[in-house]
Amino acid sequence: MNFSYKTQRYLILFGFLTVPLMLLCAFALYPAAALFYFSLTNWDGLGFDQQWVGLANYKEVFTRPDIFAGFKNNMYYFVGGLLQTSIAMYFAVILNSRLKGRYVFRVLLFLPYVLHSVATVIMFKNVYHAEYGSLNVFLNAIGLESWQQMWLGNPQLVNFSLAFISMWKYFGLSMVIFIGALQSIPNDLYEASKIDGAGSWQTFRYITLPSLRRVIELMLVLTLTGALEAFDIPYIMMLGANGTSTFVINTVDMAFKFENFGLASAMAVVLLFIVLFFIVIQRKVLFRGDN
Question: In which domain, by residue range, is 106 found?
Fold first, then answer.
């Protein structure tokens, strides 16, 4: 069957629009709508016996302090993410210069991001182990025995230890994003600044930093959402024990451990709105000068 050029064009456009929309509905919109529906029911996750309870689950979410208690642990990941972003920018500026062997350093620093979270956690279990862990062994070797700690057994240190793992894992991704943004800055600006006698700090402050503003905004959004959704590292390493449980871990436990999928769905919806709220506040407060 032969179609005219105009018909073929419409068919191609229809196909390119239809398939993405179908995938969006199947894997994003429908699951989101189902999640909201489940949050209005009392459901154990088995069968179709879903008792309608309206907003009772949301009322329980906001009246149970233990549900939101995990957010204090999310703060460790947020602060760690801010520190990681700052250090990643610093390394990106250095590795974007004509440093000898910069490509090797880029690969080495990006490698942790490629590793699976399970492999990363297993590796850091051997680093943090109280007896034969490489960190305590190293401290002992350099004469700092007093600094040796139970990095995962001490409730005062365990969240710092886990946040450092997250920083180490995602540092390379932040650095690569900054390097890509730095390479888009015209060299003419730097050459003009040298002619005008600007120093390294002045060049960074008045050329590099303003040019990275949009990327910094993106990194802050990723840091915020990543901190609020922290799950894999504390769950794999500690299963939420010893005061390491985050809000997402509490949500997963509510669904699969306590078999209360209705309340867990409500917690997930609340988390979604919390993330959206903080993103809006972040844009309004930090970037209110943008048009």
Answer: 71-286
Please state, in angstroms and rounded to a whole number, the distance separating the CA atoms of residues 108 and 166.
17
* In contact, 237 and 73? CB cutoff 8 Å: no
What pLDDT, in 10s, does the model give residues 104-154? 989 999 999 998 888 999 999 999 988 888 999 999 889 888 888 899 988
Q: What CATH number is associated with residue 250?
A: 1.10.3720.10
Closest CA to 251 of 272, 266, 241, 239: 266
pLDDT per residue as tens digits for the range 189-221: 888 888 888 888 888 888 888 888 889 888 988
Provide the domain count of the chain. 1
**Residue 24, in any domain of the structure:** no
Residues 6+ apart with CB under 8 A from 272: none
H/E element, 10? helix 5-24
- Helix ranges (H only) for 115-157 are 117-128, 134-141
160 inside domain: yes
**Residue 19 is assigned to a structural domain of this protein:** no
DSSP label at 165? Answer: H
Cα 172 to chain centroid distance, Å, stands at 13
Write phi, then psi, for 42 (nearest 5 degrees).
Answer: -110, 105
For Cα atoms 234, 83, 267, give the angle at the middle one, nearest 5 degrees: 40
Domain membership of residue 41 (yes or no) is: no
The CA distance from 188 to 143, in Å, is 51
Q: How does pLDDT run across 208-264, given as a tens digit for each residue? A: 888 888 898 889 888 988 998 899 899 999 988 888 999 999 999 999 888 899 999
What phi, psi does 41 have (nearest 5°)? -130, 165
